[in-house]
Amino acid sequence: MGNKYILEIRDLHVHFRVYEGISRVIDGVSLYIAKGERVGLAGETGCGKTVTMKTVMGMLKIPPAIIPCGEVCLDGRDILRMSPKEFLQIKGTEISVIFQDPMNALNPVFTVGEQFYDVIRFAQQRFSNGGNLSRERIRNKMIAALKEVILPDPERIANSYPLELSGGMRQRVLIAMALVNNPKLLIADEPGTALDVTIQAQILDLMSKLVETKGISVLLITHNLGVIQETTERVYIMYGGQVMETAPTNVLFGNPKHPYSQGLLSSVPRLTGGEIAEGIPGTVPDYITAPSGCRFHPRCNYAMPICAQKKPPLTMLESDHYVACYLYAKQGGQNE
Amino acid sequence: MKNKQRVLSSVNSEFTTTQWMVLKDKVGRAWYRFRRNPISITGGSIVLLVILLAILAPYVTPYPQHAGAFTDFLNAFQAPSKSYWFGTDEIGRDIFTRVIFGYRISLMLAVIVLGISVPLGVILGLTAGYFGGIIETIIMRITDVFLAIPPLLMALAICAAFTPTIEKAMLAIASIWWTWHCRLVCGITRSIKTEEFVQASWVIGDSHFRIIFKDILPNCMSAIIVKITLDAGFVILVGAGLSFLGLGTQPPKSDLGTMISYGAQYLPTKWWPTVFPSFAILFLILGFNLLGDGLRDMLDVETGGI
Amino acid sequence: MKFSQFLIRRLLYSILVLLGLSILIFTIARILPGDPARLALGPFAPEEQVEHLRHKMGMDKPLPLQYWNYIRGLFYGDLGLSFVTRRNVALDITHYLPATVELITMAIFWVFVIGVPLGVLSARYKDGWLDNTSRVIAFVGVSVPPFVVGLIGQLVFSYVLGILPTTGRLALLTPTPPTITGLLLLDSLIAGNFGTFGDALKHILLPSFAVAMTGIGQITRITRAGMIDVLNKDYIEAARAFGIPDCYVTFKYVLKPSFIAPMTILGLSFASQLGNAFLVETVFAWPGIAKYGIRAILRKDFNAIMGVVLIIGLAFVMVNFIVDVLAGYIDPRIRIQEETIEE
Q1: pLDDT in tens, C33-87
Q2: What domains does chain C contain, in order, with CATH numbers?
Q3: Does the predicted TM-score (pTM) go above 0.80?
Q4: Which end of chain B is more exposed for a tag (fewer CB within 10 A), N or C?
Q5: Do C148 and B260 touch (CB under 8 A)?
Q6: DSSP assignment of C194-261, as one string?
Q7: Which value does ipTM take for this structure?
Q8: Which residues from chain A sit within 8 angstroms of residue C227, using beta carbons?
Q9: Which chains touch A (3 or more CB pairs under 8 A)?
């Protein structure tokens, strides 16, 4: 289709019907990932990052979840309007996920090899319509994938149960499983946070190398700003189910415009002297009785009356740097 | 030293005030959830109803004198009617009355058995779980051997010794039953032992005794309560079984199991001496099971088995 | 591999439990009041005769020696003499045991064939009509005393509907097949006697179901709970995210871990089947080990009591062993964790 973007999320709204009412978690989120681009989605815990990811992966249970409006297009095709069967073709092959917690993502009663085998087998079935299914070939593919993630002795790993592997090894296995079918888009949900920092660094390094050599687009979801800075080209800052700001990573980190982004970046403690940062007073909003307009306004130092009335549109500051804030809307500038 | 004591006691008393508030909140919420869960309501109502009937038996039943030794052969084997709601048995006694009095016996047995086995099991379980090591191994191995015996069997074997009365039988069951609670509590204790608030108490200098009763026991309470409720149902079931086999209360006292056993001889023509006590006991056991199940859902508890 | 180690350890453990059980029962039986020799001979027998019987039964020797003799006898298959029948207890048991074995086996069959699928479907279609119905059935199953099931069953099917017999294993006029296993169903099949087979089947239907009722309830509930638990696990979500089709996920990745839950209570379930068998045998006049055992208890027939309890204990330990091994096979965590705890 010659589309520039591999992933386009347009004005996505996601609500959940819970006992106490309707929880309007995602409130008009738009996000674009160009082919081969590495994009980060950052925000504090509870801001809706995981819900966004699950929507893209089709992992939401439709009741109680409701998607009143919005589009999610993968390489031009709207996956929200696809049938489950069609979507099944895509999962694992065009779009893959690396889960947060490697401890629980593998089925404990099957060996790694068995699970890996199934992942490859079902992908192959779709591509070659029955051909290419020999056990031999699949096994070779699996071993090759395990080698790529720098796992020593891939044969032994394939015959092991998840319990016998360390967290770092399991994470590598999961990465291998995610990449083996050459997806176009890789979603990484807090990769390595369940592991200790040194391992996490190795994992992120490995991931970066792999996606670069294969030209895979990445959506990296995390609350860890350091990781964003190291591994992404562009970043979206999310709060309360809304996108607050988006820009190329170094631009945003060097010059954050949105009050929330500023607060976020300044609350990261620096090793090079100075005082301990303050953090942003207040707490994450309750999605059932969410603040109107810009959801950050109750905690914002620069809040104006209009902030509570209407949600600010994304205003373009420079090319590729957008802010959703009335502070900048006055300065005129195009809306997205 | 005096300062340390003062600090400790102030910390502890502050602790207890907030503990009290937390407890009230917990109870309030639990009650709210209980009210909204149809299973626990149904079960609770049944159990409450039976308990009330049993306590008020002499005042609630039409023929309280029929509960004991009473004969009225003229009215033997009356089918259910307005004067005899459940009919009469082979000696002419009102079955409805005897059923209600039978409930008394069933409930009392549950109280006796659980009253003995639960405290025993809980204390041993706490000890085993908390101190671990060889104490735990010994206690656990003993429970393993006891668990290898179906309760009914043990009851039968011990009944062999003494004249078979229902009390002796229930003592026999109690002598095995503690093992379940022991296991349950031991498991919970082991997992809680490593939690931080226990470690915190340890650091403050609380004695073992205090830690066990202040920190660990409250966390076991939900599981224990659920298990007790479910146990009550089971104990009554086993008790009925024993009576049915003839190892229970001797006549003329009315026990549900015995009534069913006597009534079975007269099937199928005179079905009421069997059917009504059968449903009566089913009713009670069902009540306890529903209540226990509802409580379990509500308190979100794992009881490690049925 | 580690599996054989696991097996051996389980085996040793089972033997230990059996030993403990035998000591326990032996001690209890011996220290109980009541003089079995006197009971056996009646109150009018002269004292020397009672003494003679007591001596013959070896009751005048010290307790540990009695125990030792008994254990020795066990290895020769000698379970001692029954006071009541005056026969070798072992013989008595082989006479009565098959009936009970058949009953319990049939009951276990019901439990699995009905209980597990019901639990699986219940979880799969959670909150649907099937789920609600099966939950009610399971609930009642766990709450109803087995003899009540038996009696009501008799009432409905034998007396009112008249389609099933009331008591016994075979109708009076049906010829018994040559005894090979003692299990009527098997023996009649082996002998090619289908008429007898049908009759035996009709007779065992109601009693086995009464015995199974509790077990069905238990297994259904725990299978359902286990499966619901697994369905919510991360790794199932992950498997789906990797593009593995839904039905494959359900029948392979969900099912296998779900079997662990019913496995854990299998031993317990077996225990309840045994207990139930005792009650049901009485209702249906089933000539099994229960009748023998109860009589032994009422008459304080020590050797018989010991024999019965040991056999039951043995069966129990064997079942637990099989269950543990199966569980270890299905769930590698159990095998591996055991090792690490020991270290």
Answers
A1: 556 666 666 677 777 777 777 776 666 666 677 777 777 766 666 666 676 667 7
A2: 95-288 (1.10.3720.10)
A3: no
A4: N
A5: yes
A6: HHHHHHHHHHHHHHHHHHHHHHHHHHHHHHHHHHHHHHTSHHHHHHHHTT--HHHIIIIIIHHHHTHH
A7: 0.78
A8: none
A9: C
